[in-house]
Design brief:
272 residues, alpha/beta, eight-stranded mixed beta barrel, 12 helices, 49% helix, globular, binds ligand C2E, binds magnesium ion, EAL domain-containing protein
Length: 272
C-alpha cells in the first residue's frame, strides 16, 4: 500500500539524509508546479445504504496526476502539503471541486451528499468557515448536501479554536463526520462535547476477526445513544457487509461496492 511504501521510503532515506532532503525538495517543487498545471483530480467513493443498496453519498478523495509517476494517492503528498502550508490551497481546491460536482449531480436530478476531508491546518484556520460559505454561495449549493470529515486528533487539546471552527461549519448547515474512528485516542468525552453528526468506524474494526469486534458493537451502541449516524469504512467482502448489516449500521463504503472513481464514472453508476 501507499502507506507501507511511505514508511519504507522513510527508512531508506534515513540512511542517506542528503538524498532524503533533496527528494523532499524535489517533491515540494513538483507540488508547486502541480498547482500551476492543475494536476490534482478529485475522485469519489460511493457511500451506500445497507438497507436499499443505493448510493446516498460520496467521499471526495484527492489524487495527483503526476506527469512522470502517474496517479498518486494522497499518502504520497498530503503530509508535505500539510507541513509546507500548501494544504490550505489544496483543501480549497478540493472543497470547490466537490461543491461544484455536487451541484452538477443535483442539476442532473441526483441528490448526492458529498463528504470532504479536512486537514488539521485547515481546521486551525478560522477563515475556513467564511471561505466555505462563499464557495457554497457561489455555486448555489445547499450546505445540507455537504459533509466534512475530521479525525479525532483534530479535536484533541485545542478546545477553544477547534470548537469554534466546528461550530462555525456546523452553523453553515454542513454535517460533521468523525473519520477513522477507533484508531486514535477514542476519548468518548468529546463525542458529547462536540457536535458530531456521523461516525465513521475505521476499516481496521470492519476487517478484524470476530473476537475483536465487540469494540465495534460498543461503538455502534454508543452512536445510537448519542443520536449519531454510523458508516462502516473498508468493507471488502460480503461477509463483512453481512456483519455490518446485522449491526444495523446504515451506510458502508469499501472496495466491495466500489473503489474511488472519477466523477464521470460515478455518473455512469448513478445512471445504471
Ligand atoms: P480516509 O478519509 O479515511 O479515506 C478512506 C481511504 O480508504 C481512501 O484512501 C480510500 O480509497 C480507502 N478505502 C476505501 N475503501 C477501502 C477498502 O475497502 N479497503 C481498503 N484497504 N481501503 C479502502 P485514499 O484515497 O488513498 O486516501 C487516504 C487518506 O488521505 C484519506 O483517508 C484521507 O485521510 C486523506 N485524504 C484524501 N483526500 C484528501 C483531501 O482532499 N484532503 C485531506 N486533507 N486529506 C485527504
Ligand atoms: Mg475520510
Ligand atoms: Mg476514513
Ligand atoms: Mg483513513
Amino acid at each position: 500500500s501507499g502507506k507501507q511504501r511511505g514508511r519504507n521510503d522513510l527508512a531508506y532515506y534515513h540512511e542517506d539524509l542528503g538524498a532524503a532532503v533533496s527528494a523532499r525538495t524535489a517533491l515540494e517543487t513538483d507540488l508547486r508546479h502541480a498547482f500551476e498545471r492543475n494536476e490534482f483530480e478529485v475522485h469519489y467513493q460511493p457511500m451506500v445504504s445497507t438497507e436499499c443498496g443505493r448510493v446516498q453519498a460520496v467521499e471526495a478523495l484527492v489524487r495527483w496526476r503526476h506527469p512522470l509517476h502517474g496517479l498518486l494517492a494522497p499518502d504520497r503528498f498530503i503530509a508535505v502539503c500539510e507541513s509546507t502550508g500548501m494544504i490550505l490551497d489544496l483543501g480549497k481546491l478540493v472543497f470547490e471541486a466537490a461543491v461544484q460536482q455536487q451541484t452538477a449531480w443535483q442539476r442532473q436530478g441526483h441528490t448526492l451528499k458529498v463528504h470532504i476531508n479536512l486537514s488539521p491546518r485547515q481546521f486551525d484556520c478560522p477563515l475556513v468557515v467564511s471561505s466555505m460559505q462563499s464557495v457554497l454561495l457561489a455555486h448555489g449549493c445547499d450546505a445540507s448536501n455537504i459533509g466534512v470529515e475530521i479525525t479525532e486528533s483534530m479535536l484533541l487539546g485545542r478546545d477553544g479554536l477547534s470548537s469554534r471552527v466546528l461550530q462555525g461549519i456546523s452553523d453553515l448547515g454542513i454535517s460533521i463526520a468523525l473519520d477513522d474512528f477507533g484508531t486514535g485516542y477514542s476519548n468518548l468525552a468529546y463525542l458529547q462535547r462536540y457536535h458530531i453528526d456521523v461516525l465513521k468506524i475505521d476499516k481496521s474494526f470492519i476487517q478484524s476477526s470476530d473476537e475483536e469486534r465487540p469494540i465495534a458493537d460498543l461503538i455502534v451502541a454508543m452512536c445510537r445513544t448519542l443520536g449519531m449516524a454510523v458508516v462502516a469504512e473498508g468493507v471488502e467482502s460480503q461477509a463483512q457487509l453481512d456483519w455490518v448489516k446485522h449491526r444495523g449500521i446504515e451506510q458502508y463504503q469499501g472496495y466491495l461496492f466500489s473503489k474511488p472513481l472519477p466523477a464521470n464514472a460515478i455518473d455512469a453508476l448513478l445512471a445504471a
